[in-house]
Design a protein that fits this description.
The protein is elongated, with a radius of gyration of 34 Å. It is of the alpha+beta class. β3 and β4 form a beta hairpin. A four-stranded antiparallel sheet has the order 1-2-3-4, with helices on one face. The model has no long low-confidence stretch (mean pLDDT 90). The longest helix is centred in the N-terminal third of the chain and has 58 residues.
Length: 166
Amino acid sequence: MKQRIFMYLFVFSVLLILFQYVNSKRVFEDIDNKLENYKSKSLKYKDSIAALQDEVLSLSHFNLNRNEDAISYFENDGYNVDELIPFIKDELYKLNEAKGDHPIVPYAASEGRKILINTVKMLNHKWIIADFSDGEYWGEIFLTYEITSNKELKFNLVESFLYPFD
């Protein structure tokens, strides 16, 4: 009788160990598959990030913040670029507050509206691109700017265009 109990215990133990082995193997394979999945996604995302960084670098080529020569131009004149760039943009936006026609934009607004400069992009230490709109018509302007010896900021319109209205 004792031998039978030991034999049943032995068979039961073997079955339990076999069950544990199969279950553990299945769990391990599942975790391994997930890990491989995460590795492949990680590589894909790293490639996407690298491509986006290349695109950002390409798009920011004409950008005052990334142009060391233009920054040096201002620094050599004793200006703090981190304060100067927002100042120049603010001065351009202040022109939106002028009464009547806009002092820079050479187009008249549609009736009952006012043309406003919306977005400003400083290309370098001399050039600015901006877009404008009155809510119905919109366009873009290309400006030059300079800081005179009297520390005054002067804008000069070089080119402008108005998108056709459909």
